[in-house]
């Protein structure tokens, strides 16, 4: 599929898929969205010493970077295990042109940005001391075949239901919630009523939260 790079309202860039007329991130601000949904309403709500994170899907790598940025601001004894899935990786020229390393303070982000995109698939890499990163090149529906630990935090960041409705239906949510430990948190930019009902049916406590710029609401769901 043909993709082009566009600049969002907060100055950060995103990829736009022409055939689907779909952005990888909100046009109101890619960085603001990632920070609000997955850090402010996700990672910052956890207090565990060791955290297992599952992301669907890896895409441009922006969610990994905002997570590492927060990791660097926390107690240095924390241990993060970050697992992410992507079927169609972005290209080297797209990584370069997105220039996400420039969005973060510290020269180390240039190396980190390159490392998350160039490290081997299906192999765990220690991106930083105590930050372990594993990316799987596969379909989301192969999730149950992966040997994952119990997950504390899920970043549910699939393309929207308009273009990929099967990613917002019960079978995939069931696979995802089955990976989670009791008390685990799922956070997503979606606020669809059908998504809330599915998560509730799967034994999740669902809460509507204020959405990122340009979106009224989003969802947090805790496994009971």
Brief characterization of the structure:
The chain has helices at residues 30-40, 62-73, 92-98, 108-118, 170-179, 193-201; strands at residues 3-7, 13-17, 22-23, 50-56, 79-85, 125-128, 131-136, 151-156, 180-188, 204-210, 217-223. The chain has 224 residues and is α/β, with parallel strands linked by helices. It has a single domain (30-223), classed as Vaccinia Virus protein VP39 (Rossmann fold, 3-Layer(aba) Sandwich).
Outline the biggest β-sheet: 8 strands, mixed
Task: Kindly name the structural category.
Answer: alpha/beta
Distance between the termini: 39 Å
CATH topology: Rossmann fold
CATH superfamily grouping: Vaccinia Virus protein VP39
Give start-end ranges of low-pLDDT stretches. Answer: none
Based on the structure given, which CATH architecture is correct? 3-Layer(aba) Sandwich
- The whole-angstrom Rg is 16 Å
Secondary structure: helix percent: 25-40%
| Spatial sequence of strands, sheet with the most strands | 6-7-5-4-8-9-11-10
Silhouette: globular
Number of helical stretches of at least 4 residues = 6
Assembly context of the chains: single chain
The CATH class designation is Alpha Beta
Strand content: 25-35%
Order of helices and strands: EEEHEHEHHEEEHEHEE
Number of domains: 1
| Tally of DSSP β-strands | 11
What does this structure look like?
There is one protein chain. With 224 residues, the chain is α/β, with parallel strands linked by helices. It has one domain: Vaccinia Virus protein VP39 (Rossmann fold, 3-Layer(aba) Sandwich). It contains 6 helices and 11 strands. The strands form 2 sheets. An 8-stranded mixed beta sheet has the order 6-7-5-4-8-9-11-10, with helices on both faces. Helix 1 (30-40) crosses helix 2 (62-73).
């Amino acid at each position: 599929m043909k993709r082009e790079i566009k600049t969002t309202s907060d100055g950060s860039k995103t990829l736009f898929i022409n055939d689907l007329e779909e952005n990888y991130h909100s046009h109101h601000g890619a960085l603001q969205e990632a920070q609000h949904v997955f850090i402010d309403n996700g990672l910052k709500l956890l207090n565990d010493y060791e955290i297992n994170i599952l992301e669907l899907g890896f895409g441009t790598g922006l969610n990994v970077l905002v997570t590492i940025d927060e990791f660097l601001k926390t107690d240095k004894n924390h241990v993060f295990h970050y697992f992410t899935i992507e079927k169609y990786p972005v290209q080297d020229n797209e990584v370069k042109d997105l220039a996400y390393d420039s969005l973060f303070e510290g020269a180390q982000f240039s190396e980190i940005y390159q490392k998350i995109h160039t490290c081997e698939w299906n192999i765990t890499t220690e991106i930083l001391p105590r930050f372990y990163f594993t990316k799987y090149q596969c379909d989301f529906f192969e999730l149950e075949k992966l040997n994952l630990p119990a997950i504390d935090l899920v970043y549910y960041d699939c393309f929207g239901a308009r273009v990929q409705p099967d990613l917002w239906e019960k079978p995939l949510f069931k696979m995802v919630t089955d990976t989670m430990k009791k008390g685990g948190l799922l956070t997503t930019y979606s606020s669809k009523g059908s998504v809330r009902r599915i998560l509730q049916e799967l034994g999740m406590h669902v809460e509507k939260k204020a959405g990122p710029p340009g979106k009224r609401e989003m969802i947090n769901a805790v496994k009971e």
